[in-house]
Amino acid sequence: MRRVVVRDGVPALEDFEPGVLGDNEVRILTEYSAISPGTELMHLRNKAALVLPGYSGVGIVEAVGGAVEHLRPGQRAAVYGVPTHSEIIVAPKHLSVPVPDSVDPREAAFAGLGTIAIHALRQADVHFGESLLVVGLGILGQLVAQVGYAASSIVLATDKLETRSRVANQCMPSAYVASSDEMLAEQLKKHTEGGQGVDCVLLCAGGCNDTLLDESIGWLRDRGRIVIVGVPNPIFNRNALFSKEVDIRISRAGGPGRYDEIYEKAGVDYPLGYVRWTEGRNLAAYIRLLQEKRIKVNPMITSEWSLSEIGEAYRRCSEAPGDELGMLLKIG
């Protein structure tokens, strides 16, 4: 079996054997794996010593461990949080969910990114009738905006790349999408309560913009919330923050359970009454949104690549970000 590996910032293919399947694990023959440009290009830029990239994929279950009850061989499953740029995925049972036949596997392949988007909205704590502004409309920002839109929030979104703004408009006809500062200022004035600003800003942009947090404070109403989803520099003007008593929150990955070995590896779930939305339940919620056609992923898919083309795919999303959005590795 083959998989992608990044050594010292250079992607390559290697042969591997998946090993013995554990009681709490699922072995899946990969169909598609989604590329997460922000995370994966960061590995290349930082010259990571050893990384197995990918964390979002879909495939056909080949075998299940003895403690796995919700999946069976031959069934399609989506996975999150384990290396997916591989011909075989071995996933913990809580990080793999069934995919109905009515769901397009290409859309299901973005389940990891969808899980992160859903958790970001939960961190935002946006209530019915409130407004949110999504800053940065890469694939993750697009999904954050669409999940908020599906939940009937008043959605504003902005990205300087017009191609991304057009896709957002196509997927969310009643949202307010801006591709310039002037357009955004006008929309904030027209579509927020008294023109006083949105209830929450979700920062899904990367890069090194030292002014982004200060700008976000300006887009908020008094005592609004900022959720950091991407990787902006956490630099802000203390007086601006104080003047509105802004609440800044971090959204970490896909939700409760992430990086908890007892949950992820040992298979011990959190009680529903204490932790309503674990990363596994958020993963299942993303598939439900697809099944009910409440979000649209296909319009965002711009290219498919083979495993052996991973280097070219990375070059493409680095050099032509305006031309690429949803990128898939077609494996099975």
Written description of the protein model:
InterPro entries: ADH-like_C, ER, GroES-like_sf, NAD(P)-bd_dom_sf. GO terms for molecular function: metal ion binding; oxidoreductase activity. Keywords: Metal-binding, Oxidoreductase, Zinc. Belongs to the zinc-containing alcohol dehydrogenase family. The protein is α/β, with parallel strands linked by helices and 332 residues long. The chain has 2 domains: 2-110 and 256-330, Quinone Oxidoreductase, Chain A, domain 1 (Alpha-Beta Complex); 115-250, NAD(P)-binding Rossmann-like Domain (Rossmann fold, 3-Layer(aba) Sandwich). The protein contains 11 helices and 15 strands. The chain has helices spanning 37-45, 105-108, 111-124, 139-150, 162-171, 181-191, 212-219, 238-244, 261-264, 279-291, 310-319, and strands spanning 2-7, 10-15, 25-35, 56-64, 76-80, 88-92, 96-98, 131-135, 154-158, 176-178, 198-203, 220-228, 247-250, 301-305, 326-330. The strands form 3 sheets. Strands 3, 4, 5, 6, 7, 14 and 15 form a 7-stranded mixed sheet that branches. A 6-stranded parallel sheet has the order 10-9-8-11-12-13, sandwiched between helices. A hairpin with a 2-residue loop joins strand 1 and strand 2. Helix 3 crosses helix 4. The model has no long low-confidence stretch (mean pLDDT 94).
